Amino acid sequence: METINPSKNIVSSTYSSGPNILQTALYEINEAVDVSENLDDLYKSVHDTISKIMKADNFYIAIYYREEQKISFPYFVDEEEIFEEHKQKFDLGRGLTAYVIRSGQSMLCDLDRYKELVQSGQIEVLGPPPRIWLGVPLKIGYEIIGVMAVQDYKDAATYGEQEKRMLEYVSSQVAKVIYRKRAEEKILNSEFKYRKLFESANDAIFLMTGDTFIDCNAKTEEMFGCTREQILLRKPYEFSPLVQPDGRNSKEKAIEKISNAFAGVPQFFEWKHVKLDGTPFFAEVSLNHIVIDGKDMLQAIVRDITERKNSEEELKLSEQKYRDLFTHAPVGIYQADRNGKIISANAMLANILGYGSVQELLTVNLKDIYLNEEERDALIKKFEPFGSAALLEVQWKKKSGEPIWIQMNAHAVKDANSQTLYFEGFVYDINDKKEFEKRIVCEKDKAEEANRLKSGFLSAMSHEIRTPLNAIIGYNDVLRYHFYDSVDEEVKLAFDSVEKGGLRLLDTIINILDISRLEANEFPINFQSLSFNELLISAYRLMKKTVESKGLKIITDIPTEQILVHADSYCLDSVVINVLNNAIKYSKEGEIKVSLCKFDTYAECIITDQGIGMSEDYQRHLFEPFSQEDVGINRSYEGSGLGLAITKRFIDLINGEIEINSKKGVGTTVTLRIPLSKVNE
């Protein structure tokens, strides 16, 4: 390889005026590494120096990352190409720069050579093609660390072999200063990162020579409640109580730990420290031997674990409470595996099952406690997918073999993979409860039988009474027809009293008969399509005479369009007559309004009166048989108290609804909703 004689003037006068230009360039490049604050400044200084020995309007330095097979362009100046991302890392690729790196040789490439390389596939087009391109590898020994290149887009004669030799001549020094500057920045960055980690660490960090603190981070000041000056040159045992929780003297124990660490045995232990004001706190401490600038030191890392220690203490107390609750709970508790082995149990469970101790119970398999041994497996199969089961009533057997009813809440305790570890159950002795339930059922059956007998008796008596009563009412009508006009007022009054009393008694008997059949579930229902309009008009005509005799007025709002409902004729007729009868009975004056309309899938009938109304307390008992607000033989209004009870049952039988709103002294509104017949559709 041809060498350059620096004493010869080989540089164009355009860029130099003396023979020592190359030595000057080398000196400036070497000087730049000391005066440049960073790599960017160094690259700029190299560019300025190269510009003094040749044209360098288009100049760049590429850095090669061999292990990653990537390159970056930390310095890039170009007239034709805007390359904003030049500092990023890119794959090595197949450009001219990569060609020089792979070949390890300098390259002077004109446009013809450039096209040949592209056509042969040795390089690929990256950016605008130059008329002349000159690149030299930057080497440290045999290792290529990058490429330095100049190029011209207009004049191919700008660079030749002479410029190539000059660039090669200075490239070695450029590589050295770049390598040195990058190493310096790595060290500075490393020191900066260490100091940043040191200061931003969430643990207190000390440096120690012997047993004395010589440096600490900001967290130390916060943790120990003091300033840096108040802690440096002091001993760790000066920030400790006299005695550690294990009873050892703090100073003696600290010196022992420090000595072991200096001997090369890393130390990790819990320690009780105190802040400058004497407040104690628990810490985890690690001691490690390090060498800095040839000096033996200890790095101490202190982590405040007071919250953790408090949590551990709370956990211990919680576990003790759980053990106490488990042992003394008023319910039986057990834990058992899938095979029925009892892992643990409390005294109450042993007592329920008649065992002398928990230890004796633990020798028994849970399957053997079930009266039906296969029942446990069946319960696990049924409820394990859900994780728990509540209020299970099962028959177990005591130690003596005596059956016992228990109620159990159980759940599966599972691991992180949802696999069952064991089953836990809470057991209640419900044997007495079961016996009581048996008695209740027995008494209920007796009561229902008595009620059926009562209903049958009432039904029979109603028939027995109604037959002669019909005869009395009938003969009274015959006598009245023949003799009413020819008798005096006293006899007329007797005719009226017999008629009134007979009808009242007949109405009571009919109500008793209806309620008896309803309570015995023997009331026959015959659903059919009925005209609600006609039924209301018929009821109005039936009661018109009574309404007029009391000086009342009925206002009706019944549409001409037929509204057909799906109901039993007797039930619906009885409901309407009962409601209208109450409105008339409990009204001394005013109006009674009756309206009918369609409401959703129902026919809605609203009957409103201005009668005496009802109290809120009584309205809670409206539908109870024999219920009356005014009770006693001196009550103001007659009646058996069965009307609304029968009405409610009839409404339920025909799938209707009844709603009553009343206010004492104002009046009552009754709303009836009866399902529409499909004929309406």
Question: What is the secondary structure topology, with strand pairs?
Answer:
Elements: H1 21-35, H2 39-53, E1 59-65, E2 70-77, E3 90-91, H3 96-103, E4 107-110, H4 111-119, E5 132-140, E6 143-152, H5 161-200, E7 204-209, E8 212-216, H6 218-224, H7 228-231, H8 250-262, E9 267-274, E10 280-292, E11 295-304, H9 306-328, E12 332-336, E13 342-345, H10 347-352, H11 358-361, H12 366-369, H13 375-383, E14 388-397, E15 403-414, E16 420-429, H14 431-483, H15 489-519, E17 527-531, H16 532-549, E18 553-557, E19 564-568, H17 569-585, E20 591-599, E21 602-609, H18 616-619, H19 643-653, E22 657-663, E23 667-675
Parallel strand pairs: 18-20
Antiparallel strand pairs: 1-2, 1-6, 2-3, 4-5, 5-6, 7-8, 7-11, 9-10, 10-11, 12-13, 12-16, 14-15, 15-16, 17-19, 20-21, 21-23, 22-23
Helix pairs in contact: 1-2, 1-5, 2-5, 14-15, 15-19, 16-17, 17-19
If you had to describe this structure to a student in words, what would you say it looks like?
The protein is of the alpha+beta class and 681 residues long. It folds into five domains: 21-189, Beta-Lactamase (2-Layer Sandwich), CATH 3.30.450; 201-310, PAS domain (Beta-Lactamase, 2-Layer Sandwich), CATH 3.30.450; 329-429, Beta-Lactamase; 435-517, Helix Hairpins (Orthogonal Bundle); 525-680, Histidine kinase-like ATPase, C-terminal domain (Heat Shock Protein 90), CATH 3.30.565.10. It contains 19 helices and 23 strands. Helix content is 43%, strand content 25%. The radius of gyration is 55 Å and the shape is elongated. Residues 1-19 have low confidence and may be disordered. The strands form five sheets. The chain has a six-stranded antiparallel β-sheet with strand order 3-2-1-6-5-4, with helices on both faces. 23% of the residues are buried.
